[in-house]
Design brief:
The complex is a heterotetramer, with two copies of chain A (358 residues) and two copies of chain C (319 residues). Chain A has 358 residues and is an alpha/beta fold. Chain A has twelve helices and 14 strands. In chain A, the strands form three sheets. Chain A has a seven-stranded mixed sheet, with helices on both faces. A five-stranded mixed sheet of chain A has the order 9-11-10-13-14, with helices on both faces. Chain A has a two-stranded antiparallel ribbon with strand order 1-8. Chain C has ten helices and eight strands. The longest helix of chain C has 26 residues, at 5-30. Chain C has helices at 5-30, 45-52, 68-73, 78-85, 119-132, 151-162, 210-225, 254-261, 265-275, 281-304; strands at residues 60-63, 109-112, 139-144, 168-173, 176-177, 180-181, 202-206, 231-236. Chain C has 319 residues and is an alpha/beta fold. Chain C has one domain (5-305): Thiamin diphosphate (ThDP)-binding fold, Pyr/PP domains (Rossmann fold). Classes of the chains: A alpha/beta (358), C alpha/beta (319). At the A-C interface, helix 11 of A face loops of C. The complex binds thiamine diphosphate (TPP) (2 copies) and magnesium ion (2 copies). The site of one magnesium ion has 6 residues of chain D, from strand 5.
Amino acid sequence: MGKIEKDATSLGTLKPTMSSDLIVQVKKGEPAQELSYQEAIREALREEMIRDEKVFLLGEDIAKHGGAFGVTRTLFDQFGPERVRNTPISENTIAGAATGAALVGMRPVAEIMFVDFSGLAMDQICNQAAKLRFMTGGQCKVPWVLRMAQGGGAGKSTAAQHSQSLEVWYAQIPGLKVVMPSTPYDAKGLMKAAIRDDNPVIYLEQKFLYPFRGLVPDKDYIVPLSKCDIKRTGSDVTVVASGYMVWHAMKAAQQFESEGISVEVVDVCTISPLDEETIGSSASKTGRVVLVAEACRSYGPTGEWGMLVMERAFEYLQAPVVRVTGRNSPVPFADSIENGVWPDTEDVVKAIEKVMSY
Amino acid sequence: MGKIEKDATSLGTLKPTMSSDLIVQVKKGEPAQELSYQEAIREALREEMIRDEKVFLLGEDIAKHGGAFGVTRTLFDQFGPERVRNTPISENTIAGAATGAALVGMRPVAEIMFVDFSGLAMDQICNQAAKLRFMTGGQCKVPWVLRMAQGGGAGKSTAAQHSQSLEVWYAQIPGLKVVMPSTPYDAKGLMKAAIRDDNPVIYLEQKFLYPFRGLVPDKDYIVPLSKCDIKRTGSDVTVVASGYMVWHAMKAAQQFESEGISVEVVDVCTISPLDEETIGSSASKTGRVVLVAEACRSYGPTGEWGMLVMERAFEYLQAPVVRVTGRNSPVPFADSIENGVWPDTEDVVKAIEKVMSY
Amino acid sequence: MDIDKSTLLEMYRRMVRIREFELTATDLFKRGQVKGAIHTYLGQEASGVGICMALRKDDLIAGTHRSHGHNIAKGANPKKMFAEILGKETGYCKGRGGSMHIAAFETGSLGALAVVGAGIPIAVGAALGFKMQGQKRVAVPFTGDAGSNTGNWHEGVNMASSWDLPVVFALENNHYGVSTNIKYTTKIEDLSIRAQSYGIPGVRVDGFDVIAVYEAAVDAVERARSGKGPTLLVTESYRLDGHYAGEPQVYRTKEEVEEYWKKDPIPRFRKHLMSNNIASENDLDGIEKEIKKEMVEAVKFAKESPQPDPDTAFDYIYA
Amino acid sequence: MDIDKSTLLEMYRRMVRIREFELTATDLFKRGQVKGAIHTYLGQEASGVGICMALRKDDLIAGTHRSHGHNIAKGANPKKMFAEILGKETGYCKGRGGSMHIAAFETGSLGALAVVGAGIPIAVGAALGFKMQGQKRVAVPFTGDAGSNTGNWHEGVNMASSWDLPVVFALENNHYGVSTNIKYTTKIEDLSIRAQSYGIPGVRVDGFDVIAVYEAAVDAVERARSGKGPTLLVTESYRLDGHYAGEPQVYRTKEEVEEYWKKDPIPRFRKHLMSNNIASENDLDGIEKEIKKEMVEAVKFAKESPQPDPDTAFDYIYA
Ligand SMILES: Cc1ncc(C[n+]2csc(CCOP(=O)(O)OP(=O)(O)O)c2C)c(N)n1
Ligand SMILES: Cc1ncc(C[n+]2csc(CCOP(=O)(O)OP(=O)(O)O)c2C)c(N)n1
Ligand SMILES: [Mg+2]
Ligand SMILES: [Mg+2]
């Protein structure tokens, strides 16, 4: 099975839309290989399953079929049906069963195919898993990871029930950690950190990013949870973004280089708990801030980030913070109106121009 | 059955903790009667059920029992089992059945006892009801109201699974309207507007407010959806709040009167779609803003409100916006730690002092 | 049961229309002209047609991700369907929904819902609405075998049964949920047993046999319409294509699939019509030719139709 | 089944402990000393005790909003329970949970979950964990009659059965979900029929008869422990108190409740123990006295214990 086949998703073979040179996270000379985002997730799962026999996977069609996007492909052959478990279509029970197994010593990595379907599982995720440790006064812990594909993409239109970005549903709930990797490097490192973490971690995979490739170190490493990552340092303007939006931010940043405008890009790779410090200092340093998120505008993640800038960097602000977000709309099917539902590089460029010219 | 018994809730008889004089919404001489918040909801339901035979209620134990908080008490006797329907414990199906009935011409008012349980119904609410009109290209509409009790209160500790404020889950989803009345006047007027509206409306009842009393006009009236309501005009500082928090804001405002500080209180009685205009103008006018919400701080509603002030009033701001919110924690049971989990008047006072002294 | 000739021929017509629609759609898909996935109904034509032909136009069906067939069975127009799956303003949903969300209220299809099980509570609610308004209409939510493992399914059947609502729960056992054979996720083989949990009749029929399906559906619909409450109707057939067009099917053998092609409901029904002198080979060939022409025209219509105007992007979010 | 004397006496002790705990808690509640609601287990003691006595200490139960009885039946200490329902740092959950969330991992109670049905998936997952780790432990989620209408219940029983997990699904039919008699929300009277939907045994026993419950539970637990998969065990009893202490019960008659008091499982078991010469009146009086003393001490302990230190408000949110 060749590389390209591994990268095929259930909804067609995808091609990355940006150059991987935009983000380099491996030092020159460090032993590394190029992996796609989805391969990076897969390798993290594989390595953790080898390292710790308590780690296992459960979800719909993750076994032979490899999941809707092929992320778990080959793992069933390697680890067998006990540790790579197909479940019935029962999202709430998948999440709840992960909790139960975690309570008795396992370290489950559950999958809900699309974050959209997690509306069925919010009770087990947000009311049970997130709160069990607290409600029992620390008698237990719930070390699981819940993988969900989110956002637009998948190469093709998937319309209103397969395209949402819902990180805020989870970020609003104390007790959960929420991560959203933007690169193969982060995808692997955050997955390893998530699996080793003793809390329930919501791991949001970006459909747009599955085919994106990048260098990933050969060595065992983690990307710590709870930190933002500065993907590019700059001094004139801060762009705060997460997931696929980081790439638009990076591309926009690159375009401003020639104009002598230095853009810092802060990747909110852990959405919650939020690393307020990094966002606050960057904003204080540059005094100009753009926020980018794929989720719907109203009550989306940019609200929190913007308020945070207000709290931590108000006196340094030289312009009002500008945000670039998904449209306040269900995601439509037709191209003509799907185009424009999510931010693109040009939107970020315009926003940077706006804060620079204030 | 006397007034006091009507006001008893399933979790004990409640007493309001603030004077109803703080908010007066009925003009002198206008025919009106004093109702509690829960009576106001009930009378709205009653009047709408009389006005339109398509209006009916469904939910768990709403019939003879009158619901967990007695809101629907007496309606079963008046309208009978067809129009006041006890359901099985099936939250997702309650929401979905409301949608189906709405699609064929009924105007259901469904109840999910506590907003906390709506984690079980998010799919039908957010993926189906909210999107059906859009996904079908306008072939249908979904005119329902979903009542849910939210927040702390109920007179007593109800701990982590009966005390949350989750308006953001719904406010993030286009296609839904989300309202959160703070007074008996608004409770009645918003309920009537919600029932007559052709969209799915999430109607969040504040447990803390059930026993609060206030004047409600005798005449038929509605409070329009999609507007913030200025509960008190002022010129020095704007406090944006919703639900029970409005009362803390009003009390705090009153305390500043003697000091010659004029506080404007903007009640976000419709959380979504958000009336950006009213918040923006008030913030521009006063240049100082405090945001108050009972929900958890991170990724709660104050983020959106704060970002909005940033977008609409940045150049008028004389101090960074300050927010007062629920603690980032599941709600604990014991008094000693439950106290302090939600904002109180003193917290609002301190926040006002902070923005005034910047 | 005596079924009149025109009904039988209409059944055949709709089965062929579904078949041709799916083959044409697959062809378009493979040539990259359809965005998004399509989930075809190949092999299940007799199930949808047998059930929907037992319904009146004003009865309502609720669909799934795999509902091209349900819509056509209920009378939908292939033009507006192709327009929809190509994302055109002339589509049933004005291009907002696409293949997974085709609704056609004008023919009694309240929508294809792509979250498995989601149509059930909605259909139950519609039936409640019918009952409360004294309308003698029936609601039919379709679910797959795998869909019957969802919480929605249990809650919906229970609610409908406890209120004696006019619902026929159509459970189409095509033996797979994506890649997973139902035997791995459900311990029982005969899913109609589940009706007993709700005190309603459970009926299981050969889903390759349109007449058997139709007869069982007529009974169930009659029961519902007369106020006696819901029925669980299980049709046994097979998903002859992958989960979606182009899906590699690594989880089953070619032989298994070929075995099932032998049960193809269309030649079987064709034979029945001929051997019972209901129609001649010529008649049936005529129908097929007519449908093929319909498809060509429908695709042409769809292709020539405009996409939604970007200025209308915010339409239909709120009423 | 031959049950040894010490087991029988321990059953009696636990039943009386539950009864006294609930009466004491109700009394405290009525005097305004308990914050929050309490949902008592009066009338259902034989059900919880019969089931939990069939378990090993390292087997796990998952509770509901009504789980004082389940916890005590599984061996919980009334001191730590009273401390919990008074919101004290010495409570099982350090005052974070209260009456509706008592967990006692030390005795094999993974927690009372106040969202109806929520314990089911969790118990199923625990059983999966047992199986994967080769531990011969069993998980028992308790649900009420009304809880068996939730989607959670269907999904959980289905998953456990398809994986042959060591679960005993305890379904306690006390005939009410808050104010609603189960006959209004479920069409069938014998809920154990629902087992057939999952190809597992369904057993229905008199939930007022602790020995009948125990015997059925022993079989079900043995089946689970030996890898044969889950059982649905329905116990039929009655909720003798309101939904919560002080609840007005406008939906049922005093007569109905009084009729059921005649079936009170405690005097019945007492009579059985005496008439079979397993214990004398004196022995049993002794147990009751002992338990009453235990309650007085437990309440004293709870009252004298401190509330959580406000500085610890952020503890236990994250591990
Ligand atoms: C709640 C939910 N979970 C998962 C999916 C992904 N998914 C789409 S179709 C499908 C299988 C459905 O199988 P079945 O109900 O038998 O219907 P069929 O595809 O065979 O028609 C799955 C898992 C979904 N759409 N919704
Ligand atoms: C999902 C959910 N819906 C509603 C409630 C409110 N509620 C608490 S207990 C209860 C009735 C439960 O009845 P049953 O399952 O029979 O248990 P019992 O109270 O009789 O022990 C309800 C509706 C809840 N806690 N969770
Ligand atoms: Mg199937
Ligand atoms: Mg009960």
